[in-house]
Q: What sequence folds into this?
């Protein structure tokens, strides 16, 4: 176990405080992804949701977004996340170099990106699986049982964020919320692309810029993204 | 229903009664379709005669139930800031859609999205190709490229997506490849001529309004209605 009990408590309190009315799902999942890599001691974390085409979509990540997008997309043909999503069970690979036969494309892409071990935790809601949380480490080795349990609790928190405040969410509510999350992410990608031209910055940097603007101004991340693509809001290019 | 500026207008219905229901939502300014458009999220109402629907849309719920319709399922025809309209399915029986019916409706809404983009650029593709594009059109890079192109050419994200799609179609490249090339600055799409042989666009909108106040000329989406008969 890497994180202290106290830090774990703080994170869960912070996350539950975020779940107010009118919260922004992408903002919530973005914080969750960052906390996952911190508390679990992994190098990167991505949160993936399945769409109605059966494809996994990256909706939030702790870092290195372009790489994470690529590693997500590869997994629509093969990989631990697709397996966790299909089976509803966690998938743990202590050394990716030994998984080349199982997932040749995914393993190649992950090792190229500098990762040597990977975990995928399903986002379960009763009998359905909404997506998966993908954890990458630059070192080999299994996560211990306590860390996996904590990881699954964080994955469950992500599911709770999606079905937000509806403990016994009906299927309709889940559909509505899931589509909102997927569509919000599309809006954010559009705004990243917009900023990549209008102020000439990289897409990863564009995301960080929108996020810090939204937090500083107490606005929803998706509302900020919408204002940017509608040319109602101009963010200054970060200095330095 | 299609979005003409910010207003949702009935565009196409599978029969007269359905057309009336859409018209009614439009006139009353309330109903599942306008909520779906406002939130960019599906609105799935299993029973118009139920308490919840009556509280949420008092006038429309009563009028719809009077005409013998109980289930109303509205799916936005949307991708991020490109908000084109709503696909609404009406049903005479109360009760939720099965999850595979919901998944089908979402795929239809995505296909209508691509057809509406193609309509703007004069592209007429085969249905299989449209469905394939609807699948690709959800990828992150496609939307980054749409945002980049919108800023470069000072057009709406909707028009940017339509241009990316038209370029992919006319060049035979995949939408994903076109998007990656746009992001890498390897591909410049002509800002004056629409791809695919359509006439030059004469009314670029800038800034692209989200149109809550007034309709504008280049934002005619397309939409459809389906009635489900049991």
A:
């Amino acid at each position: 176990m890497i994180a202290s009990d106290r830090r774990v408590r703080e994170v869960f309190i912070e996350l539950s405080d975020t779940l107010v009315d009118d919260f922004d799902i992408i903002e919530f999942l973005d914080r969750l992804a960052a906390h996952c890599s911190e508390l679990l001691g992994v190098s990167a974390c991505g949160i993936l949701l399945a769409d109605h085409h059966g494809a996994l979509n990256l909706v939030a990540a702790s870092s290195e977004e372009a790489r994470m997008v690529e590693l997500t997309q590869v997994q629509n043909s093969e990989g631990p996340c697709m397996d966790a999503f299909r089976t509803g069970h966690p998938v743990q690979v202590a050394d990716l170099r030994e998984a080349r036969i199982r997932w040749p494309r995914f393993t190649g892409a992950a090792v190229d990106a500098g990762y040597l071990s990977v975990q995928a935790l399903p986002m379960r809601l009763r009998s359905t699986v909404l997506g998966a949380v993908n954890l990458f480490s630059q070192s080999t080795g299994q996560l211990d049982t306590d860390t996996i349990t904590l990881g699954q609790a964080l994955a469950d928190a992500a599911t709770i964020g999606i079905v937000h405040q509806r403990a016994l969410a009906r299927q309709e509510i889940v559909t509505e919320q899931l589509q909102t999350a997927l569509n919000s992410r599309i809006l954010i990608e559009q705004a990243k692309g917009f900023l990549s031209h209008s102020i000439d910055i990289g897409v990863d940097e564009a995301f960080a810029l929108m996020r810090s603007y939204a937090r500083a101004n107490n606005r929803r991340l998706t509302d900020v993204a919408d204002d940017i693509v509608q040319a109602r809001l101009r963010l200054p290019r970060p200095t330095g | 229903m299609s979005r003409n500026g910010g207003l949702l207008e009935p565009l196409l219905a599978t029969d007269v009664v359905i057309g009336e229901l859409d018209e009614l939502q439009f006139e009353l300014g309330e109903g599942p379709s306008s909520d779906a458009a406002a939130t960019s999220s599906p609105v799935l109402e299993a029973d118009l005669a139920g308490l919840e629907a009556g509280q949420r849309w008092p006038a429309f719920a009563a009028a719809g139930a009077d005409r013998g319709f109980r289930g109303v399922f509205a799916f936005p025809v949307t991708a991020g800031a490109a908000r084109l309209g709503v696909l609404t399915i009406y049903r005479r029986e109360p009760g939720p859609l099965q999850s595979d019916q919901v998944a089908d409706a979402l795929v239809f809404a995505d296909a209508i999205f691509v057809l509406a983009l193609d309509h703007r650029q004069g592209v007429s593709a085969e249905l299989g190709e449209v469905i394939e594009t609807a699948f690709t059109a959800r990828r992150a890079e496609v939307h980054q490229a749409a945002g980049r192109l919108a800023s470069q050419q000072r057009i709406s994200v909707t028009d940017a997506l339509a241009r990316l799609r038209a370029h992919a179609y006319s060049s035979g490249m995949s939408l994903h490849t076109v998007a990656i090339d746009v992001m890498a600055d390897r591909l410049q799409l002509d800002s004056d001529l629409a791809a695919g042989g359509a006439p030059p666009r004469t009314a670029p909108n800038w800034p692209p309004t989200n149109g809550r106040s007034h309709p504008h000329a280049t934002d005619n989406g397309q939409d459809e209605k389906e009635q489900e008969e049991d």
Summary: The interface with chain B takes residues 51-53, 55, 57-58, 69, 73, 170-172, 175-177, 179-180, 182-183, 185-198, 203, 225-226, 229-232 of chain A (CB under 8 Å). The mean pLDDT of chain A is 89.
